[in-house]
Design goal:
The protein has helices at residues 4-21, 25-48, 51-60, 65-77, 83-92, 97-109, 113-126, 130-143, 146-159, 165-174, 178-183, 189-201, 209-216, 224-234, 239-251, and strands at residues 284-285, 292-297, 302-307, 314-323, 329-342, 347-353, 359-363, 369-376, 381-389, 398-410. Helix 2 (25-48) runs antiparallel to helix 3, helix 5 packs antiparallel against helix 6 (97-109) and helix 12 crosses helix 13. By secondary structure, the chain is an alpha+beta fold. It has a domain at 284-410: Sandwich (Jelly Rolls). The chain has 15 helices and ten strands. The chain has a five-stranded antiparallel sheet with strand order 1-4-9-6-7. The termini are far apart.
Amino acid sequence: MLPPIASHIKKIYYAPALRVAGGCLAGAFLLAAWSSGIAAVAELEKAKNTPDSLRKAVELAPDNAVFRNLLAEHIEGSGRDPKPQLIEAMRLSPLESQYMVRRAFRSEIENDFATAEALLLEAARIDRKAAPRWALMNFYFRRGRETEFWAWFTKALLMSQGSVDAIFRLAWAMSQDSELILSHIPNQPEAMRQYYGYLAATNRLDDAGPVAIRVATALAPQEHDLMLSYCDRYAEGDPQRALPVWNALAAHGGTSFRPLNPETGIILTNETFASEPSRRGFDWSMPTVDGVTSERVPDMKAIRFTFSGDQPEACDLLQERIPLSPAKTYEIRWLAEVRSEAPVTGLFWEIEETGSGRSTSEPLAGSGDGGRLQFRASGRSGTLRLRHKRLPGTRRAAGTVTIRNLEGRLAR
């Protein structure tokens, strides 16, 4: 028997069609119109999205899985069993994974874990998108089944699009072992970029070193600042974290500099001043000093400072964070050319080691002369500075100082 509203529509469309057309083509057309009218009314009832309206929609269109799924939501919300409607939705649309996932969740609530797992696995089999994999990952998280959780964690990442922060958040809820989590993330540029972003946003950059290295090898030019910021953070206090990322950028075109290696004495970046000091990572920084101007001299592989005579009594002109290897002895070498109206004195190189604060310094030396600063490292990083301090009893310096052939190496 047709539901009342369907009978009413039948009186309007179907019966007149049979009388007028006598079963001919026009009758078939009007019969189609009657069916369309039924569907339209069912859609109107569905749009109201109330328990009563959805029951009417199901009566009008009993073969519509969407209507049954929506009705199941209302039934469940009222504390009753939605399973019959969910079972019907699955029967009517057997390739729609969402109905299996919803029924699985209901089975889990009822402690029928075997049925829930079977339904979720079947949903993942018929639907290769992310949603069933995300549901399985959550199921195994709630059951405390780590092996299966990590397997579906990886599969969910492989199939997901857009932000996957929720997946990473669940992984950290399962384990605080950063190496374990990283081992299950697909080694793909986008996955690594997103994971690095998640670690940065949740203040976990201390766990981001291996991720940052992988990201640095696959960045587009406009993304290099992401990894340079990581190097800025760690270059001075923890170069063991920053150096591999800096070198990965250097090796893959992220910077114009060569990789550094304190074990072999390669500790200076941009020592020829071929690039403008960037203040990033292990590159030079040139503080602004009133009364002192600076310029690179690329053809001489040099940098030049001009003193007006109005500069401060003491100032830093140039500095760079450098990686070191404990117990290694290093030397910084240079040539200096001085042209001055008044003697340019009080210039010296100084290396200050991070942590210990121990420093070693050496005067810049005279015009055309070479100089050497030698020191034995006790830690893993330091800051090299070119400093000026007016010597007692001397006039303020006025003139130019050009530094070239700058080199850092192991002492011989």
